[in-house]
Specification:
- There is one protein chain.
- It contains six helices and 14 strands.
- It has about 220 residues and is α/β, with parallel strands linked by helices.
- Strands 1, 2, 5, 6, 7, 8, 9, 10, 11 and 12 form a ten-stranded mixed beta sheet that branches. Strands 3-4 form a two-stranded antiparallel sheet.
- Helix 1 runs antiparallel to helix 2 and helix 2 crosses helix 3.
- It starts with a strand and ends with a helix.
- About 35% of the residues are buried.
- It binds uracil.
- The site of uracil has 9 residues, from helix 6.
- Its cofactor is Mg(2+).
- Keywords: Allosteric enzyme, Glycosyltransferase, GTP-binding, Magnesium, Nucleotide-binding, Transferase.
- It catalyses: UMP + diphosphate = 5-phospho-alpha-D-ribose 1-diphosphate + uracil.
- Pathway: Pyrimidine metabolism; UMP biosynthesis via salvage pathway; UMP from uracil: step 1/1.
Length: about 220
């Protein structure tokens, strides 16, 4: 896991398997099916890294040979919250890693005139004592990510209990996000160059939702 001198809360997951799979996803000739399964696989690998420091406790159990205090996760079940719709593919990979996790959803669209995110669906699990993993493959302008954190804050989730997971991030988005929610740790597989005039990440991978669902 790498850190970046300009972004204290950014963690770049540089594991060779993650990087290899991401390169395949970026390829414009990758099929919809290939794109979707790679996204799920990367989310699982990233999930392994971002859950490294989850709080632990012990449970008294009986093995076939002896009693022991066995380590188990402490507190309530993890909450996975995809930002619709592109976040769904990553949430699937995280669920394979933590099958007992709860899943919330935040649906946002961009108002054409104001260019600001507007929410159309918010369904979230009980916040108390839970770590929330907010997922969206592309951290582009950072506006949706920051807005989704605002939604979680309003729901009673503090920033220190939120982790944001993106596949690819742009410096512009990380900057906005860290200005508005500096206590949220941001995990990404790659920090790309910049945003183009249409707010697409360059080199990026195009529209993640369209590539995942085969839409235009
Ligand atoms: N959303 C996407 O799907 N791709 C980008 O490059 C930026 C935002």
């Amino acid at each position: 896991m790498q850190t970046h001198p300009d972004f204290p809360n950014l963690y770049i997951l540089s594991h060779p398997l993650i990087q290899h799979k991401l390169s395949h996803m970026r390829d414009r000739d990758r099929s919809t099916m290939g794109f979707r399964s790679l996204l799920k696989e990367i989310a699982l690998l990233m999930g392994y890294e971002i859950t490294r420091d989850l709080p632990m406790t012990t449970e008294r159990i009986q093995t076939p040979l002896a009693e022991m205090d066995a380590p188990v996760l402490a507190g309530k079940k993890l909450a996975i919250v995809p930002i619709l719709r592109a976040g769904l593919g990553m949430a699937q990979g995280l669920h394979e890693l933590v099958p007992s996790a709860r899943e919330g959803h935040i649906g946002l669209y961009r108002d054409h005139e104001t260019k600001q995110p507007v929410e159309y669906l918010v369904k979230l699990p009980e916040p108390e004592g839970r770590v929330f993993v907010l997922v969206d493959p592309m951290l582009a302008t950072g506006n949706s990510a920051a807005y989704a954190c605002d939604v979680l804050n309003r729901h009673g989730v503090e920033d220190r209990n939120i982790r944001f997971m993106a596949l690819v991030a742009a410096p512009e988005g990380v900057r906005v996000f860290q200005k508005t929610h500096p206590d949220v740790a941001v995990y990404t597989a790659a920090l790309d160059s910049h945003l183009d005039e249409n707010a697409y990440i360059v080199p990026g991978l195009g529209d993640a939702g369209d590539r995942m669902f085969g839409t235009k």
